[in-house]
Structure formats: structure tokens, C-alpha cells
């Protein structure tokens, strides 16, 4: 949860032609909101990396029957588990 400070401007206010100070009403407001978690990410390869990673990804996806998204998630999960095991052994 994130606290954010913002300003609300009330443009609907009736203007008094003789009093120019009320032509724009600015109200300070503090709001609480949860920023949504993004569901998509983008991968960018350097030109020389495309020739290396693309065939590996395609082969793994074909052999394992995975989509690219599933392949990435499986890779992240495997790396996470490996690191957790290394940390446990270090204790």
C-alpha cells in the first residue's frame, strides 16, 4: 500500500466575475491506493545474443511443450530453488 499526496482541482466551481481569486479551487488530498502488479514484461536481446538465445529457447519450448512465458517462469523457479539450496548449505 502506498501513500500518495495529490491535488484535486475543482473546475466546476461557479465563478464570481468580481472576485478573481476564486477562479480555480485547488484542494490538497491524500489518497491511499494499491498499484496494480504488471502482468507483462518485455525481453530485449542485444543483436549478438539473438543468435544464441533464440535457438535455445525454441528447442526447450519444443522439447518441454512450453510456451515462452512458461519457459521463463520455469527458469526463474529453478534459479530461485537453486539459490535457496545454496543459502541453506551456507548456514
Describe the structure.
With 91 residues, the chain is α+β, with helices and mostly antiparallel strands. The chain has helices at residues 47-64, 68-90; strands at residues 2-10, 25-33. The mean pLDDT is 80. The chain contains 2 helices and 2 strands. The longest helix has 23 residues, at 68-90. The protein starts with a strand and ends with a helix. The protein has a two-stranded antiparallel ribbon.
User: Please, what is the average pLDDT?
Assistant: 80
Q: Please trace the helix and strand order, writing H or E for each element.
A: EEHH
Strand ordering within the main sheet: 1-2
Distance between the termini: 34 Å
Q: What is the number of helical segments per DSSP (H or I, 4+ residues)?
A: 2
E-strand count: 2
The main pleated sheet reads as: 2 strands, antiparallel
Please state the overall shape, judged from the principal axes of the Cα atoms. Answer: extended
How many whole angstroms does the radius of gyration measure?
A: 27 Å
- Range of strand content: 15-25%
Low-confidence stretches: none
Q: Level of helix content? A: 40-55%
Structural class: alpha+beta
